[in-house]
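Recall the central idea of this unit: under ordinary conditions, the amino acid sequence of a chain determines the structure it adopts. In this exercise we apply that idea directly, starting from the sequence alone.
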Amino acid sequence: MPSSGSATPSVESFLYQHFNKRHADSAFKHYKAALGKFSEGDWEGTLAKSGKFVEAITKALMLHCGLALGNPRQFSAGNGLRKLEPMTNYSDTVRLLIPRVAIPLYDMASNRGGRHDSHDVDANAMDAKYAVPAMSWILAEMVRFGSVGDPDAAAALIEELTAKQIPVFEDMDGRTYVNLNGLGAPDVAILLLYKKFPGRIDKDDLIEAVVRHGHKKKAAEMAVHRLSSYVDEQDQQLKLRANGRAKAEGILK
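Accordingly, the structure predicted from this sequence is:
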């Protein structure tokens, strides 16, 4: 929301300077959702949200340039973005720079997201790692565009938006790591189960995974034992229940 008094201006307050509030809010909502999916290692979810992000950005840019959005059922972000280039009465930021980043992002989300077969290289992961900085750059450029009168606050927000995003979960040679500092052994265990859901993890393998995060084996064994009320156990194979997933999501927030 726009700032008041000495409060630090928000991303939204800069976007509202030039862009339709409804679509600016929608874009920022999808951006934050994409970051959440990315942090969880949900590559397909990241791409899906990036496509929605571009659609919202496109509508905001088109309205800024006085273009009608037309029938929502026939709306195409790619077509809308290409309509902006001839609008020479408007800033190059709006009609050229942002569309040239947004169009390949939208094409990737529309034509590649969720349609990959499993190979040695996960193309969904590769695409998601392109999508997040592309979305961040678009938002940062829109903040810069709306920053007249408060460049220092805009610069701080731009720095935050363009900071490198690191996934919470990282897979290396079949082993999963949690990239959060200061977690106790029980939190590591429940997050590893959350990442694996709806699959199961062998109890001994889970203990070893917690140890790989720097915890003593005795602490890891105790942590896994104390998860009994959060898991379904079948032949030493653990699967996180709904209450466990809620607890994991609380840790991630």
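The longest strand covers residues 169-172.
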